[in-house]
Amino acid sequence: MPMRMNALTLKQLRALDAVAKGGSLTAAGEALGLTTPAIHTQIKGLEEALQMKLIQRAVDGAGSELTEAGHALRETALRIEDSLSQAEANLRAIQRGQVGRLTLGVVSTGKYFAPRLVKLMQDAHPEIELSLKIGNRTEILQGLERGSFDIVVMGRPPRQPEVIAEPLGDHPHGLIAPPGHPLIGHASDLDMLFAQRFISREQGSGTRILMSRWLDRVGDGRIYDTLEMDSNETIKQAVMAGLGVAFLSLHTVTDEIDTGRLVQLNAPGLPLMRHWFLVRPVKERPRDLTLRIWDEIIGLSGKFLPMPIR
């Protein structure tokens, strides 16, 4: 029997998503305000329409989890929800007399300049409602894949999903320390450098990858101590408290360096220069207002980026 995709409903897809989030039919029912049998009926309707098993008993025997087919269908359901949310936001903007709404996604390191960029865009295009969403690289990539963002500002563009990317400006990375640190003026001494504790972002973050590559290159295989933290703000506070030195985007520490709360170290091979990019998904046909904002941002030539650190 062929699949009956046109028989699927939003209610069924939302039930599947709720099972994935809650880990059981009961939890899904509580989240949606439905009984457990009602959730079972929704899932059964999906499985009959697709002729595939979508949920199974969890490995630990407690609750339910999605099958491979269930995960694949849920990804489509999430894209549908994102599209509906975008459509609602656009319609509400039109009701308010604007031409539409644009969602700008920015990786977390860019949150220090993103509001300035939004302000420039609002001043240039008051007829467009702008929404700013900040997330880590993984979250931004997931949003690109699902169509949650019209435009994204990020570092290295991904291979997948396929995107159109334009460079925006330089993105320097360097090593910072608190005032009075012994490495100030001596950061080229590798023995002193590698005796430090390096406070770093989590594994898999772009900044952590850059730091590891830099240390491996200048240290020629030397061992070093790290202390992992999950945000730039926490890392900056840890450095100021004397817990170690840190490798960070210099765009995240301009205020602290300007006011003398942190010091940029003149370490070998630093600063490392990367670039910011403006990105949009290839698979999405851009709206006219998206292209209007895209061209406006490109035309700024990085005016919104922090000034180079002196």
From TrEMBL:
One GO molecular-function entry: DNA-binding transcription factor activity
InterPro entries noted in UniProt: LysR_HTH_N, LysR_subst-bd, WH-like_DNA-bd_sf, WH_DNA-bd_sf
Domain HTH lysR-type, first and last residues per copy: 8-67
Name of this chain's protein: HTH-type transcriptional regulator CbbR
Domain of life where this protein originates: Bacteria
Gene3D superfamilies assigned to the protein according to its UniProt record, in alphabetical order: Periplasmic binding protein-like II, Winged helix-like DNA-binding domain superfamily/Winged helix DNA-binding domain
Keyword Cell membrane part of the UniProt annotation: no
Keyword field: DNA-binding, Transcription, Transcription regulation
Keyword DNA-binding among record annotations: yes
Homology family: Belongs to the LysR transcriptional regulatory family.
A Pfam family that the UniProt record links to this protein: LysR_substrate
